[in-house]
């Protein structure tokens, strides 16, 4: 259903101005400092196929600079824009990359390795076959998927980071859609930080990155969307962190009573049905959180928990298909459930 895409964009717009924007803190006290008295500069824009909202306590010109940076990155990273670097690599089988694209590709490939291919940047031919790129949704047959999966293998992406050169095997194509927004969040926060900003919030279609806390020193309050219905499941208090969610509800279509979403299990070529319905990853790096939210959605509850215990360096909120909410122990003091009387939130511990 093409309309589901349009609907989700409209919803995103509503939500950005409504409930998934950082939940307003009821008791936000404004300190005596000059910046705390200032109202932020804000802008809403549509880029990277999503609605974005930038909030910065700083000069308005920073928003213009941020928008230019988003456009610059989108122009390089887009898989559909015929002038992008990724498009050129996909169509020529090789190419030289700008510093940005090489930086992102190098780091994202590392995440493919670390997640043992749950994140696989070469998934693109499969994503396209399901119509998630164009909105012309369809269910590919098993034969078609088997043929496409032959070319899905991130270990065959030959990348010389120093030279900025990448080459692919025949019929391979790459897609940075699972990590591009997280990387963009990192870039915007660093742009603001370099300009001396100490308080900003970047919301790239629900992928959130905070610079500092609010001007009064209190944390930003970030609502985590309910993947099974309206509203949100809880609020995270966040300072200087990224909060990035991958969810089955973000892009999907329905056919014959089945729901098919855009996160693909590279082992099967089908939408990942791991028992999870959303994965929110909280950490210092937007890129890491973005890559892991996609990969852990594919891995499922048990493997996600094992990965967290072994790798560390991030926290997560998992929602299972039956509505159970589970969070890692580092978030215990940071997460307030929207409905405290609802089913207990499970805390995942290290032991
Ligand atoms: P995200 O919303 O960050 O979880 O990214 C989902 C997007 O990444 C999809 O729309 C696809 O373009 C792409 N994608 C889907 N499955 C995978 C996967 N297993 N590995 C890498 N990219 C994927
Ligand atoms: Mg992601």
Care to describe what's here?
By secondary structure, the protein is of the alpha+beta class. It is 33% helix and 24% strand. It is built from ten helices and 17 strands. The protein has a nine-stranded mixed beta sheet with strand order 1-2-6-7-10-13-14-15-17, sandwiched between helices. It has a three-stranded antiparallel beta sheet with strand order 3-5-4. Strands 8-9-16 form a three-stranded antiparallel beta sheet, with no helix packed on it. A hairpin with a 4-residue loop joins strand 14 and strand 15. Helix 3 packs antiparallel against helix 8 and helix 5 runs parallel beside helix 9. 44% of the residues are buried. The structure holds adenosine monophosphate and magnesium ion. Adenosine monophosphate binds next to helix 9.
């Amino acid at each position: 259903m093409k309309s589901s895409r349009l609907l989700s964009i409209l919803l995103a717009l509503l939500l950005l101005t409504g409930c998934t924007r950082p939940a307003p803190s009821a008791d936000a006290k404004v300190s005596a400092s000059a910046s705390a008295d200032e109202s932020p500069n804000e802008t809403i824009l549509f880029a990277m196929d999503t609605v974005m909202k930038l909030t910065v306590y700083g000069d308005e010109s920073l928003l213009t600079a941020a928008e230019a940076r988003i456009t610059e990155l989108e122009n390089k990273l887009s898989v559909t824009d015929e002038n992008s670097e990724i498009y050129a690599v996909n169509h020529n089988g090789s190419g030289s990359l700008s510093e940005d694209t090489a930086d992102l590709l190098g780091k994202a490939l590392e995440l493919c390795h670390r997640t043992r291919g749950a994140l696989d940047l070469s998934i693109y031919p499969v994503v396209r076959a399901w119509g998630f790129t164009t909105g012309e949704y369809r269910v590919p047959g098993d034969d078609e998927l088997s043929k496409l999966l032959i070319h899905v293998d991130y270990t065959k992406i030959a990348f010389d980071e120093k030279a900025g050169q990448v080459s692919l095997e025949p019929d391979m194509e790459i897609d940075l859609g699972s990590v591009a927004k997280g990387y963009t969040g990192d870039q915007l926060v660093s742009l603001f930080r370099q300009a001396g900003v100490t308080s900003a919030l970047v919301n790239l279609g629900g992928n959130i990155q905070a610079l500092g806390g609010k001007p009064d020193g209190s944390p930003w309050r970030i609502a985590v969307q309910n993947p099974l219905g309206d509203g949100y499941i809880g609020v995270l208090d966040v300072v200087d962190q990224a909060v990035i969610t991958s969810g089955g509800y973000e892009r999907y279509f329905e056919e014959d009573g089945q729901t098919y979403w855009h996160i693909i299990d590279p082992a099967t070529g089908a939408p990942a049905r791991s028992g999870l319905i959303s994965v929110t990853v909280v950490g210092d790096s937007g890129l890491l959180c973005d890559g892991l939210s996609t990969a852990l959605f594919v891995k499922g509850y048990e493997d996600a928990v094992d990965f967290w215990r072994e790798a560390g360096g991030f926290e997560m909120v998992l929602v299972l298909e039956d509505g159970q909410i589970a969070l890692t122990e580092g978030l215990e003091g940071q997460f307030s459930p929207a409905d405290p009387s609802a089913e207990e939130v499970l805390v995942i511990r290290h032991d």
